[in-house]
């Protein structure tokens, strides 16, 4: 059931909410898998915007699920790619040595545990670093286009097309046969074109809602257009799927706009909705098929070693990232900062 007797590991740890300075590299106890769980030797982990939200504890409403005074799980990170180190007694799908990827809370560490149902075998044509930046963002994008009921031939607008979720939303919409327009900043339009977008809009120079174009489906990842702007850019019976939002105040953040969209949708012909990412292994398998067929490719901005996670998060918050960041192995210069906990 296991390939090692190691009992400790190096991990990024936070004891309280705050900025990147709350993160420390420590030696801590290695987790052990429950009956339905898999222990993964982490080769790489992806950095997503959700990790920043959990690190800072904002919006405050998320603390209902993650802990009031500090995160219940002190090790951040969710995207993971690595090899199976051990499996629980009820796990039959994976074996020690399998190369896997998926969602594992606490992935900024040498080892992480997660339920077997949140994993899939790593795409054969991806490195661990590439695979690590797929799960959270690509699953969110897949949920968005699925919730949007995408159909071949539709005109789809992706707002925030150069980021983690957006880079996958563009490719998935194209894979499903849509004509795609991507919205991004000037310096990232080349990336959006390379992802396969048929058209691009520079949001610093042009307003997607003021061009007169109408879209059957809008995937809003940027999280700040008003509902009225989204509706102006939709066809009379079009759908807007809101995947997140950074505005709306410190208590509920972008969730305010999501709930208002859902309520407004009851009174108009247009469909305004949002998603709750399910993070299922079978959806990862759908993504694997698309990746191995060459229809979806991760956009890897750069990699950082584990002891430079704070720097990686600072780069994420600058808005400079093109696609996603991966966290890789530890540097040999590691100096232990804390006793084993």
Number of domains: 2
The helix/strand class is alpha/beta
Percent strand equals 25-35%
User: What do we call the CATH topology of the largest domain?
Assistant: Quinone Oxidoreductase, Chain A, domain 1
Our Rg estimate from Cα atoms comes to: 20 Å
Topology, element by element:
Layout (H helix, E strand, L loop, with lengths): L7 E6 L10 E6 L7 E11 L1 H8 L6 H4 L12 E9 L11 E5 L7 E5 L3 E3 L6 H5 L2 H13 L7 E5 L4 H12 L3 E6 L4 H6 L4 E4 L12 E6 L6 H7 E9 L12 H10 L6 E4 L6 H12 L7 E6 L3 H10 L5 E5 L13
Parallel strand pairs: 8-9, 8-11, 9-10, 11-12, 12-13, 14-15
Antiparallel strand pairs: 1-2, 3-4, 3-6, 3-15, 4-5, 5-7
Tell me what the structure shows.
- It is a single chain.
- The chain is α/β, with parallel strands linked by helices.
- The protein has two domains: 8-134 and 298-328, Quinone Oxidoreductase, Chain A, domain 1 (Alpha-Beta Complex), CATH 3.90.180; 137-274, 3-Layer(aba) Sandwich (Rossmann fold), CATH 3.40.50.
- Helices cover 26% and strands 26% of the residues.
- It has ten helices and 15 strands.
- Strands 3, 4, 5, 6, 7, 14 and 15 form a seven-stranded mixed beta sheet that branches. It has a six-stranded parallel beta sheet with strand order 10-9-8-11-12-13.
- Helix 10 links the parallel strand 14 (300-305) and strand 15 (324-328).
- The longest helix is centred in the middle third of the chain and has 13 residues, at 135-147.
- The radius of gyration is 20 Å and the shape is globular.
- Residues 18-327 form the Enoyl reductase (ER) domain.
- It comes from Kribbella aluminosa.
- This is NADPH:quinone reductase-like Zn-dependent oxidoreductase.
